[in-house]
Specification:
Elements (H helix, E strand, L loop, with lengths): L4 E9 L6 E3 L7 E2 L2 H12 L5 E3 L4 E9 L15
Antiparallel strand pairs: 1-2, 1-5, 2-3, 4-5
């Protein structure tokens, strides 16, 4: 089973149209296309896999940190819930 990684939000769409901006540092730069934005994400973060939520207008990358294991919960009698 593959290890699950956490996703980090790195860019978002700037209405109107297909304009995108990075969230870190260079927030004043708006890219005229998703391709230009993804290129800049690659340059800044060295990420080669992008996860795009088209409905929300957000671009994510894996941050390399493993998803934390859920905390085990126990009942009053010490039984795992």
């Amino acid at each position: 089973m593959g290890k699950s990684r956490m996703k980090e939000l790195v860019a978002s769409r700037v209405p109107p149209g297909d304009r995108w901006a990075l969230l870190e540092g260079e927030s004043d730069i708006v890219f005229c296309s998703l391709t230009d934005c993804l290129n800049q994400v690659y340059v800044v973060h060295q990420a080669t896999q992008f996860f795009i939520d088209a409905k929300k207008g957000e671009v994510y990358i894996e941050d390399g940190v493993e998803k934390p294991q859920p905390v085990k919960k126990y009942s009053l009698y010490g039984e795992e819930i």
